[in-house]
UniProtKB/TrEMBL annotation:
Source organism: Mangrovibacillus cuniculi
HAMAP family in alphabetical order: KhpB
Subunit structure as annotated in this protein's UniProt entry: Forms a complex with KhpA.
Name of the protein in its database record: RNA-binding protein KhpB
Entry GO MF terms: RNA binding
GO biological process, one term: regulation of cell shape
Biological function: A probable RNA chaperone. Forms a complex with KhpA which binds to cellular RNA and controls its expression. Plays a role in peptidoglycan (PG) homeostasis and cell length regulation.
Length: 209
């Protein structure tokens, strides 16, 4: 990361100039005040400018995107990663050829890329973001499939009275299952286990029939 040092009559002015030179906002800057300003005595003697050191704060999205692009390059896949964000949620959409290779059987390769990218982002201090890696609109197709699966299993649980444990899923996939069954009477859902093997259990809910 590039660190710059600027001086000005005030700390605020020095920080502003430093951020402009780095092309970042003040919210994206880590500022260290090296010297506080002092006014000249009687307007003639002494005095000193403010001096600040400014460094861009680590950005989890930028770090994770660069990591994913490196992985794709090493896999020999020519692709572009498009990023969209909403609050603390970020979607990395992989656009290009050979998307089938990136998705893999039942999305296993894509899920592995998602897990690794999320781990990299998690290690960036002071900037948590939940990342979803997608390719070829797989996540939307997967969501539709999960909604259908959730309904089928819910019907089974209602008929048998026995809980059913689903396969391990990503956080967004578990959220889809919970949402799909939130208003279905006679069943309830619960996440269990530890990531990356966390899963959903669909249980009978006698009190809500």
């Amino acid at each position: 990361m590039t660190e710059v040092t600027f001086s000005a009559s005030t700390v605020e002015a020095a920080v502003k100039e430093a951020c402009l030179s780095l092309g970042i906002t003040e919210n994206e800057a880590k500022v260290t005040i090296l010297q506080e300003p002092k006014k000249k005595f009687l307007g003639l003697f002494g005095g000193q400018p403010a001096i600040v050191s400014v460094l861009p704060k680590p950005n989890a999205i930028k770090v994770a995107k660069a990591y994913l692009e490196t992985i794709l390059e090493k896999m020999g896949v020519a692709a572009t990663v498009l990023v969209t964000t909403k609050g603390r949620e970020a979607t990395f959409e992989i656009v290009g050829d050979q998307l089938g290779v990136l998705i893999g059987k039942r999305g296993q390769t894509l899920n592995a890329l998602n897990l690794l990218t999320q781990l990299v982002a998690t290690h960036v201090p002071e900037h948590f973001v939940n990342i979803t890696v997608d390719a070829g609109d797989y996540r939307n197709k997967r969501a539709s499939s999960l909604q259908e699966l959730a309904q089928r299993v819910a019907d089974q649980v209602q008929q048998t009275g026995h809980s059913v444990k689903l396969e391990a899923m990503l956080p967004g996939e578990r959220k889809t299952v919970h949402a799909a069954l939130a208003k279905i009477k006679g069943v309830k859902t619960q996440s269990a286990g530890e990531d990356p093997n966390r899963y959903v259990i669909i249980k009978p809910n006698i009190s809500n029939k």
